Amino acid sequence: MKPLLSRPSPTVVTAPDRPTLDDPSLRSTWSHRAWIASGCTTVLISLAKAITGAGESHRWLEPALAGLVGYILADLGSGVYHWGIDNYGSASTPIFGTQIEAFQGHHKWPWTITRRQFANNLHALARAVTFTVLPIDLACNDPVFHGFVCVCSGCIMFSQQFHSWAHTTKSRLPPLVVALQDMGLLVSRSQHAAHHHQPYNNNYCIVSGIWNEFLDQLMVFEALEMILFFKLGVRPRSWSEPNSDWTEETKSIPSQIAAN
Amino acid sequence: MASLTLPNHSLPSLLPSQKPTYPLSHNVPIFSKSSQSQFYGLQVSYSSSLSIPSLSSVKGSIFAKVNKGTAPPPFALKDQDGRNVNLSKFKGKPVVVYFYPADETPGCTKQACAFRDSYEKFKKAGAEVVGISGDDPSSHKAFAKKYKLPFTLLSDEGNKVRKEWGVPADLFGTLPGRQTYVLDKNGVVQLVYNNQFQPEKHIDETLKLLQSI
């Protein structure tokens, strides 16, 4: 008689391509961790240059203000990037294909982001930050510019973590994170939940979310979509009824997740 | 609440710059039939001595434009069933002519559905509703069928009528403008309303006007 499994398997019904709780695709690899390390290193070097430069010049206000601008613009950047990935291209698009596929999977199974390990979740952004910030670290010493760069790139790199927190139930979040969300410094759970409704065409920003109301009320993304439609003939996904590849799968939610 | 609404009043072009949105061609539409026609900003008398080269240097002022109080130039366009429709067909009753960017785009769909939902009110006011865009008749047919639109959609292929009427483009010329004209039963324009990003307001404004004339 064969022994029973020593580890209980999750009580889920798996559909094709649907990740399970212990799906290997949600786990961090050493490659992921290496990209996190390199991304963080480049951001920390930029931060160090900002601090030492400010210390040497005794001018702290400008680098700090530049950092604030970086935080504000990181939110805008996250929204524009998110809008682009959600609406255009496909899994076969060069460079962005895997991201587009990941966002598609996220819309279908929003809960998986809360089950991704840290480096797995952030490594793509960490890679982009490495390639962008390293040349700046090597070429530039201006503390004001570095004040902007370290905060902006740091927020962008960690936006996936903020995004994950925005999908996590309150009871599972550290109190500090809840406080930052309630203060509007990090994108809130309710604000981001508004994005996860058909046709997925609003609340795109995922750092602090401060741009969301402005962008949505002024219909900035709709205007951009119209311009791209008339200039290039491409229709964004949000104009059509979302097909099953993009809509949230609400059936057979894992019981462990539902219980949390 | 901040918005991109253009102020609601009857001037047709509310863009800060009056640069021409379409190139001047030597086929300037001079409407010699009607003495009421006027070029934007200029009252021109029709004579053979009208000098095009000297006027062409005045940017944005030479295009025939349909304003409040003027009668628009006639047109004959195909509807969603491929039949020719003349503007003169609607003489004797008020008509709402609304120019919109394109079928199956979010704003235009909202606008068309809003006209559909209020169509009974337009009929009660004795008015007809006509939508015009650059899409071809088959696109209009599919659009009308999908959203059960009860009114006429006309194909202004090449945007010829849009240019003749002087519908301004938005966003630095990248987007065909969303502008609605209400013609009274004599065919004279009584309202010109422009609003790209709040399409449902076109219905409110036109109904308000129709109920007052």
TrEMBL record, chain A:
Database matches in InterPro entries: Chloroplast_FAD_CarF, Lipid_desat
Membrane topology, from the record: Multi-pass membrane protein
Listed name of the protein: Lipid desaturase domain-containing protein
UniProt keyword terms in alphabetical order: Membrane, Transmembrane, Transmembrane helix
A Pfam family recorded for this sequence: Lipid_desat
Signal sequence region: none
Membrane among keywords: yes
Family matches, as PANTHER family: FATTY ACID DESATURASE 4, CHLOROPLASTIC-RELATED
UniProt KW Phosphoprotein keyword: no
Residue span of region Disordered: 1-24, 238-260
One annotated GO biological process: fatty acid metabolic process
One GO CC term, this protein: membrane
Entry's family note: Belongs to the fatty acid desaturase CarF family.
Domain Lipid desaturase: 71-239
Main location as per UniProt: membrane
Subcellular location: Membrane
From TrEMBL, chain B:
E.C. number: 1.11.1.24
GO MF assignments: thioredoxin peroxidase activity
Database matches in CDD domains: PRX_BCP
Keywords annotated in UniProt: Antioxidant, Chloroplast, Disulfide bond, Oxidoreductase, Peroxidase, Plastid, Redox-active center, Thylakoid, Transit peptide
Major subcellular location class: plastid
One GO cellular component, as annotated: chloroplast thylakoid lumen
UniProt catalytic activity: a hydroperoxide + [thioredoxin]-dithiol = an alcohol + [thioredoxin]-disulfide + H2O
Location of the protein in the cell: Plastid, Chloroplast thylakoid lumen
SUPFAM superfamilies cross-referenced by the UniProt entry: Thioredoxin-like (SSF52833)
Domain of life: Eukaryota
Gene Ontology biological process terms in this record: cell redox homeostasis; cellular response to oxidative stress
Domain Thioredoxin: 66-213
PANTHER family tied to this protein: AHPC_TSA FAMILY PROTEIN, THIOREDOXIN-DEPENDENT PEROXIDE REDUCTASE
UniProt similarity note: Belongs to the peroxiredoxin family. BCP/PrxQ subfamily.
Identification of the protein by name: Peroxiredoxin Q, chloroplastic
Organism: Morella rubra
